[in-house]
Design brief:
35% of the residues lie in helices and 24% in strands. The protein is an alpha+beta fold and 429 residues long. It has two domains: 265 residues, 3-Layer(bba) Sandwich (FAD/NAD(P)-binding domain), CATH 3.50.50.60; 147 residues, no CATH class.
Length: 429
Amino acid sequence: MNGLDNDRVAVEECEVAIVGGGPAGLMAAQVLSQAGIRAHVFDAMASVCRKFLLAGRGGLNLTHAEGADVFAGRYGQRREAMSAALGAMDAAAVRRWAQDLGIDTFVGSSGRVFPTDMKAAPLLRAWLQRLRHPQSGAPVQFSMRHRWIGWDEAGRLRFLSAQGERRVHAKALVLALGGGSWARLGSDGAWVRLLAERGVAVAPLLPSNCGFDAAGGWSPFFAERFAGQPLKSVAIRIPGAPGSPPLFDRKGEFVATASGVEGSLVYAASALLREELARHGQATFYLDLLPALSVERVLSDVAHPRGSRSLSSHLKSRLHLDGIKAALLRECLSADTVAQPGALAAAIKALPIRLQAARPLDEAISSAGGVLFEVLTPDLMLEHLPGVFCAGEMLDWEAPTGGYLLTACLATGRAAAQGVMRYRGRVGL
């Protein structure tokens, strides 16, 4: 039923409005569609799942095949809050979902799960076809280029489109608006103000899975010569309290940037580094350039007589240490330290990399912060806004890359949709 309000703006009715056309929003739409409930997806962009498609350029990492307990631990302090959603849609369920759309998957050597063709577009096309033309259930309606600007005085949703303002009276609402990273793909965090105006508690959006600027920056020589080059087969360690295990200790690789560091191994440690920066204004991690060798072996080779060879040639010959690894030693150590075999060997195994700031939020792969679970019911409904549910990255959780981000978006989208169905049953909609 359509009508006109007092401002002569057309008002439309819909069963369930979903604001946000990312994976969380589409999963919510799928669950509702399968239950025969008509869902209407609104998104500010011209097409859905922009960030999803971008992630697929390097091979779409759907989920991770590790054990459930380890998997749940990737969500850190929000492990318990995320447990119900992840328990209902775990890695195996994500693979079944893809298979149901005709997309086979495989487990890589690292445990990450990918489509066999490593592409996002075929999966998204199959998904949209299913949503628009389900074999059973209700078709999902899509309205693109519709930017949500909040509620009017009567509680109706307000959207701005190319045709002007549009108002929608929805019996239930799922907000799946993403975080604050990659604004050009639709996740701009503009919803924070709209919810805060309604009294919803939102933790500030912060960069997650992000790069960092090195304290003082790199020298012009290092930045020009080595920016963009990877540091492979290394390990990062972040010490814990004296006598305690390290907070982080993992092998992998990352990349030097013009101003600092980024890449998978840095992303995995980013939450700890960001928190350290917030507490102290600076953060340090220790880089093991040769994690396959013991301290004793490194010291033995560094101290081995080198005759007329230069130190660079000596390190390359004895330890295969050259290129960006050797340059980083020179960049971070004084000439006196480099000249002392004991100090140089110690630095090769634990080179302090000092950081001064995280890169801006819009450069981050994902964001931390968002709607606090403490103001949500177990069904992900806002306690003070009955009928309004939240899902995806706009919730206050974070996780490393490796399939955990997408799995959580799908899982919370599913959980929010099931919450909508229970809510409808309680209030008789």
